[in-house]
Amino acid sequence: MARILVGYERGDNLGHYRRLAPVAEALAAEGHQVTFFLRNPYDCRSQLTKNPMPFIQSPDLVPPNPVERGPKKMGSYSDIMVYCGFGKIETLFPATLAWRTIFDQVRPDLIVCDHSPVICFAAYGRIPVIQVGSGFTIPPAQDDIFPGFQPSKTATVAPEEIVAVMNEVQTRLGGPKVPQVTAPLRTTGRLVCTLKGLDPYKDLRQDPVVGPTEGLQSPMPLPDKPAVFAYLGIEHRITSKMLAVLKESKLPVEAYVRGMTQATAKKYTRPGLTFYKSPQPIDQVLARATMAIHHGGSGMSLACCSAGRPQLALPIHEETLLNSQALGRIGVGRSMSFKDLESAGAETLSEFEADPRRRERAAIIAQEIRDAGPFRPMDHILQACRASLGNA
């Protein structure tokens, strides 16, 4: 059977792993030799322990110094490419060479990836690639440039500068010329694994939107008494501000804060505020909650929408900001910045939790999601993989 690389080179937390793990498992079950590539294997260690599969570390050539990483204000996906190394020969060449070395060792017949612009470029003209990701990680690529994240935004780095860097790398490595900045992402397959209402490019989308590979819940009745579930990362500045509000609040709270030490947990602990040391089963914590607080990640947004839970999002980058805005558009949530939290208090949190309009809207959205299903994204993904391998 075929040798297949499955994984992601950008993104933290467990969302990308959870999206791709079912794909890797299904391909392995069909007899293929699957190797996972992970950006953050340490964060995935408990999942890998439960479900071991061969894996490698994704090459990471993003400069450790934030000043060197590229545009601070990002207008389109091409700015993310600059952040990932596409802006300079000194970063894109070694990153591409690292992937070419892996290709020579693994000899993949197919690559299935999420949020992996460098591997798409390294495989360009050489190995078929199927992208499986959220709406944000698979931007529309039918035009010569990527659309802006917002109608008023454009790329902060000229696309032709990125194309020039890519073609210099291709010249040095003997690869085909790249005509436009979007060309490496025009892969064999582009399967968008989200709900149409949460796709930030829904009005421009020409790719198939096949539904989430994991995380969707059945609609859940709200508990009689108020309760909050929070899923946050301690490394973000806004998290400590939110934890202070939660401590001040009288609402019952269950929280998993990734990276939190015991000393930090002790600082914010109060009666009724419980911190977990590891991620909890999402269906169980949402069943006990009347509201969820998170950073606006795709997986949590989808899970909460399908369960019928109002959401308070604390966005930390462009993707989570767009997700948070989508939650606001469909009426199930709102976003809060660090500045918003500075002026907000426990009363604001209680008022949001008790808002009957958001509760009603969340229940309606959950029912609409259930009625739109069942979604069968794995059928579409496996069909695309089989077609690509058959053509090869």
Whole-number mean pLDDT: 91
Strand order of the largest sheet: 3-2-1-4-5-6
Largest sheet: 6 strands, parallel
- The total strand number stands at 12
Write down the Rg. 21 Å
N-end to C-end Cα span = 12 Å
The helicity comes to 40-55%
Q: H/E element string? A: EHEHEHHEHEHEEHEHEHEHEHEHHHH
Low-confidence stretches at least 5 residues in length (pLDDT < 50)? none
Quickly describe the structure.
The protein is of the alpha/beta class and 392 residues long. The chain is built from 15 helices and 12 strands.
Molecular structure report:
Helix content is 42%, strand content 14%. With 392 residues, it is an alpha/beta fold. Strands 3-2-1-4-5-6 form a six-stranded parallel sheet, sandwiched between helices. The protein has a six-stranded parallel sheet with strand order 9-8-7-10-11-12, with helices on both faces.
